[in-house]
Design goal:
mainly alpha; 60% helix; 2 strands; 6% strand
């Protein structure tokens, strides 16, 4: 975390990228355990936490600044999805096709977050080099 308001967007993007990175590992673990009896799929919750943190009045910049004041509270967490439900006879609730789709979606999200951070740093570099 960088301690200046200049990097507020980057700090939030960094937290989102961290959550996407963790989710990638969790989804890969689900895929690896596709044939494990009684395995229950896991997932990562972050988007709804970020969305709730950004809710409120004011501009996006003001809300981002407010989120950055409590950035340590903005964490993802891993949860077991439908832990008591299984549609297979072996008790496993992993749908390999769905997991692969989630993984592809998450990889695109992660790359978009990294690209956005790179663009933000590029803007700062441009401003600093023209000053």
């Amino acid at each position: 975390m960088i301690n200046t308001n200049l990097y507020n967007y980057i700090d939030v993007l960094d937290k989102a990228a961290d959550a996407a990175y963790i989710r990638n590992d969790v989804l890969a673990n689900n895929i690896a355990n596709d044939s494990t009896p009684n395995y229950k799929r896991q997932d990562v919750q972050f988007e709804s936490i970020l969305q709730a943190s950004l809710a409120g009045d004011g501009t996006l910049a003001e809300r981002i600044e407010e989120v950055n004041m409590n950035l340590d509270d903005l964490n993802s967490f891993i949860y077991t999805d439908h832990s008591s439900l299984a549609y297979r006879l072996d008790g496993n609730n992993v749908d390999i096709d769905q997991e692969e789709a989630y993984l592809a979606e998450n990889q695109i999200r992660y790359q978009a977050l990294i690209d956005q951070m790179t663009q933000e740093f590029g803007r700062y570099k441009t401003v600093l080099s023209t000053s």
